Amino acid sequence: MRYPDVVVVGSGVIGAACAEALSAAGAGVTVLDRGPLGAGTSAAGEGNVLVSDKGPGPELDLALASLRRWPALLDELGVDVEWDAKGGLVVATGDEAAKALLGFAADQRPEGVDARVVTPDEAHEREPHLTPAVVAAVHYPQDAQLQPVLVTKALLAAVRRRGGTLRPGVRATGLRRRDDRVVAVRTAGGDVPCGIVVNACGPWSGEVSAAFGAPITVLPRRGVILVTAALPPTVRHKVYDADYVGAVASGDADLQISTVVESTAGGTVLIGSSRQRVGFDDSIRVEVLRALARRAVGLFPVLADVPVVRAYGGFRPYAPDHLPVVGADPRCAGLWHATGHEGAGIGLAAATGRLLTELVTGAEPHLDPTPFRVDRPGVLG
């Protein structure tokens, strides 16, 4: 029996994308997950592939690279994952918010973001049910959406087709080392030999890295989404309030609500978004649901009488500087990390898997990996 070259711990979209890219490069890959495959953070997201919410910098570079990679990757996978290049519409309902939005869009354009200023009337042509309070809007045609569970399953299926092994229900408890190099992942059911291990455990990456003897600072950040009953076509784009960008970039532990509304292929409307650092407390709080609903109706008054059929929440992997952690751990040869994408994991996954594989194999990286290195302030410790 040939032991795997790589063990990827975590089967969410980031772990799945890393496993897929590594297997495509010829590595033997085993994916471990303590629970069902793809059932954590990736199953609790909206499937956003966004550039609209990212200012100039390394995360935007990663997002643009991923946006370029996703269509070709999906063609290679040959599976319908409900890819929808619907575009995004960001709106402001106050003068200060409008000024900030237009300035943000102006900063994005030189970096390759298609940010088109539209008038309030044009915004209403795109979204007829939008509140008349809109005073400024920017259309982002590059924004897209896909179904996160479907794409995660498709990536993992590609790994299996190439001879990889998927092992749900297997908890990684530590590493076995020889001469300070990884030689196996320890599990309750025995060691899994390997030359490389990738920590892709999302919000649990901090816990897992500590168990591996090389702790990194990645924390859970709770988010909740409302789902309406299926409607006739009502919301055409991903539409969000201009203050969403500030909520994403904030490190505040207190509850933050910023309105995000979009439809799905099945006709339901997804309403977000909340951000709150409450550890791994997964309780659904009524005050959060009320705040989400109230803000959504403010943006789309037509939703006032639409029933909400369910609410669900998840934990986003949060790094203190709001950048993903992608690269080798300098303290342990053979240990790599791919985590910290917070709520952007779906959108950033394609480029993250490619970048990690380039670094592992020694290929020329398609973008600068330095900003995502493990040994940066605030992450290592």
UniProtKB/TrEMBL annotation:
Source organism superkingdom: Bacteria
Pfam families named in the record: DAO
PROSITE patterns, alphabetized: PROKAR_LIPOPROTEIN
GO molecular function terms attached to this record: oxidoreductase activity
One cellular component term from this protein's GO annotations in UniProt: cytoplasm
Keyword Oxidoreductase: yes
PANTHER family, sorted: FAD-DEPENDENT OXIDOREDUCTASE DOMAIN-CONTAINING PROTEIN 1, SARCOSINE DEHYDROGENASE-RELATED
Name recorded for this polypeptide: Glycine/D-amino acid oxidase-like deaminating enzyme
Protein species of origin: Umezawaea tangerina
